[in-house]
Amino acid sequence: HVQLVESGGGLVRPGGSLTLTCVASGYGYSSYCMGWFRQAPGKEREGVAAIDRDGTTVYKDSVKGRFTTSRDNAKSTQYLQMNNLQPEDTASYYCATKSGRCTGDLNPSVYKDWGQGTQVTVS
Length: 123
Description:
7-stranded mixed β-sheet
């Protein structure tokens, strides 16, 4: 079981940037796929990006070229650098893990452990 804590959300103007951080604790983190997800009011949770232990990444099409995910296994930390933020990026952002490789999967239902979320508002 992995515990996850996100931070770094906030209010930003369109075109601005934010970096989200997710710190993990618990057994096995370093071998897990780490994902970022978001959920806007009235909408379903959706996958944004995910990264394997070896740095292989996958992104939702609408964030490609704007968002970058990375991880520091030594620090048990995952990051989401978000540039050129737009109002449609407004949501609660969550990090989550799944065992094994990401295999390009951004389906929230296959991710097991979740953080509490951090709010990103672009306005």
